[in-house]
Amino acid sequence: MCASPLPPPSPAAPYPPRLLKVVSESLNKCIDDWEKASSAGSDAANDLVNAKVALQYARPEVYGKASEGGELQREEFEADLCARARKTVERVQTYLEQLFLAYENLRKVSAIVAKAADMTPRKTKDRPIKSTQISIDSIEEWLHEILSMFRKSLMLKNVTFDDIAVPKEGSRETYALYLSAWVMEPYIETDRISYIKGSMEAALKVDGEIKK
User: Fold this and answer.
1) Residue 91 CB contacts under 8 Å (≥ 6 apart), including other chains
2) What is the block-wise mean pLDDT of the chain (212 residues), using blocks of 10 residues?
3) pTM for this prediction
4) For the chain, percent helix, then strand, then coil, each to nearest 5?
5) How many Cβ atoms sit within 10 Å of the Cβ of residue 2?
């Protein structure tokens, strides 16, 4: 007896325009929040690296060669650098928390879209998606893409921060490598994000013009 043929896959459902507007606005806010926290965090990470390097010059064997000041002066210099480093660590932690919040907010938006996708009726052959429309499945996939970028970047930043913040010595080259990993954000594909944002905004514009 032959097995019954599998049913054809369900075609993609068109997006509800109201949902797309909410998703587009939420996505833009999450990305803006991420970029602001990332930029400020990069400045703080740079300050932390500078403080770590300066602390190496506060060691007795190094400080004595570079300055004629006494031990008391050296200790005061070292204590000031340690205080600056602690405050900078707190700044970096604050920006990491803001990055995580941007990620969490986008994850919530993605969950809403996934739920909407499950509840949206599938289109039939006599109701094809127009070339100017975006399927709700595409929106869901795009959000997953950006979430993956954020998640990987967060992991890298946390690992980098742990390496910079721990009380151990490192060379300038090592710290520069840590800092570049933080600043460059190799997992964030800005061109891809711009394409996704632009596609949503273009679809919304067309939808608005059609309704007029």
Assistant:
1) 44, 47
2) 40 67 94 96 90 71 53 74 86 95 96 82 50 78 96 93 74 81 91 94 72 49
3) 0.79
4) 75, 0, 25
5) 4
